[in-house]
Amino acid sequence: NFISAVVPPGEIGIKFDDIGALDDVKTTLHELAILPMKRPELFSHGNLLRPCKGILLFGPPGTGKTLLAKALATEAGANFISITGSTLTSKWFGDAEKLTKALFSFASKLAPVIVFVDEVDSLLGARGGGFEHEATRRMRNEFMAAWDGLRSKDSQRILILGATNRPFDLDDAVIRRLPRRIYVDLPDADNRLKILKIFLAKENIEPDFDIRSLANATEGYSGSDLKNICIAAAYRPVQELLDEEKKGKKYDTTPALRPLNLDDFIQSK
Ligand code: ATP
């Protein structure tokens, strides 16, 4: 199967509130995608307010693009289909036409639906020179034709949401079909604090640990990097316990009861 996931809205388990920071991005997605899906009647008059068929999320790796796509489906009450550009072109390039038709007809049956295309640059990247695989070119053309073919009634309820770390690799024809482009940036210190608070909300941390210092010391870290720091800190009590066990010591608290200490993540910077 070339689709990596199909999830009904109630089962995604991620909401906008689970995403730290990115407030402007959430507001834009609300206007562009959630409102037209939930309140189509507001967009059905005149010519100016046409629901957009495609949105591009771009920005550095690990900044929450996939997370936003999933939360968007929850918030819009839409099904979520996820495909990965590179899988489609590497594994399935023989059947471009059949696959694209299947994907779009599946999507219209599941509408309202968000079709999330991760690594959209590998599926719909710039038309390569002589080196491009003929099958990749066919796949891209089929995909764009099917996308254009969405009837306007469907386009209100089927949104193609592309994500990429390499927006400059996208070809003009694709850029035109993704008229709304949203930059998902690395978090600044205030936003890193918000993200860290989400990860640490249910953890037992050293009482005098100052999360703000960690946020200040992690310039350039993505949400994903911050999560990795927290996971490493949470693992340490487990490791200590295993070490103690090896030495034949009896431990008196379970790892979960030992407070997390994140101090040296600040000092290591
Ligand atoms: P890539 O471009 O590498 O695919 P991405 O931008 O799609 O990355 P995600 O996969 O959404 O990034 O994020 C990776 C993980 O980092 C998420 O599962 C989540 O746990 C965490 N994360 C990233 N940003 C945030 C955030 N703003 N709030 C909460 N968690 C975040």
Describe this structure in words.
It is built from 12 helices and 6 strands. The longest helix has 24 residues, at 223-246. It is elongated and about 65 Å long. Strands 1-3-4-5-2-6 form a 6-stranded mixed β-sheet, sandwiched between helices. By secondary structure, it is α/β, with parallel strands linked by helices. Helix 1 (23-38) runs parallel beside helix 2, helix 4 (96-110) packs parallel to helix 6 (134-148) and helix 9 (189-200) packs across helix 11. The site of adenosine-5'-triphosphate has 18 residues, from helix 2, helix 9 and helix 11. Residues 51-188 form the AAA+ ATPase domain. Keywords: ATP-binding, Membrane, Mitochondrion, Mitochondrion outer membrane, Nucleotide-binding. Its main location: mitochondrion. It is found in: Mitochondrion outer membrane.
List keywords for this structure.
elongated; alpha/beta; binds adenosine-5'-triphosphate; 269 residues; AAA+ ATPase domain-containing protein
